[in-house]
Amino acid sequence: MPPENAPTIAVIVPTFNERGNPGPLVEQVTAALGDASFRIVFADDSTDDTTREIKDLVCANAAVRLNHSSSRRGLARAVVAALDGITANVVVVMDGDLQHPPTVVPQLVAALDSGADIAVASRYASGGRELGLSGPWRRLVSREISRFARVTLKAARRTSDPLSGFFAFRREIIAGKTLRPVGFKILLEVLVRSDACRVVDVPFTFDRRTRAASKASALEGVRFLRHLLRLRTT
Question: Helix, strand, coil: what percent of the chain each, to 5?
């Protein structure tokens, strides 16, 4: 049982060198959730001033926590490490680069309140948009990789955006499960290994990046394909 006065919502924000973004993100999440009981946990692997910025936020805001490590490999593993210290049953995962609009967080939570086990912020659901990827080529690659994931894994077909990094779930669906994500794609791991019965999509606009640099790379693509094949044989 969660301790008395524990937050009911945990927002996990994996960060790697997102200088300038943590402060605005905390402000916007706080405004979006209003009077809800929540905690923002930065799962941070940064090697720049991002960690210092988050530490300042922790000192100034009782709702902010920091889980920092310089030895993990990938933002998804940072999320798993942060989960170990969370008691809230509603968990939201979102990027720290402000491409995931905090205004969508209450919609994801509302979907869980309405009976969903996992709520996915989807770029590809009706009404969703993808502005954050630079150029038509990257947008095409993103869509094709998502399509490949759905073809390869039955569990991935439960959402239109199985590679989304913005989603919410009930912590109870992963109780007793071992999550072993690779790179920064953790939603696939949750879809495959959890006890989720109902998955719903919430359309959103994946916004343009205003600070820091994208973490996408050819190496991350290779890691993703290896992860996909490993999940297929699980």
Answer: 40, 20, 45
Q: Around Cβ 66, how many Cβ atoms within 10 Å?
A: 17
d(CA 190, CA 194): 5
CB 181 within 8 A of CB 228: no
Tell me, what's the pLDDT at 149? 76
127 φ/ψ sector (left φ>0, alpha ψ -120 to 50, else beta): left
Report the distance separating Cα 19 and Cα 122, nearest Å: 26
**What is the maximal distance between C-alpha atoms in the chain?**
50
Single pTM value for the model: 0.85
HSE-up (13 A, CA, CB side) for residue 60: 10
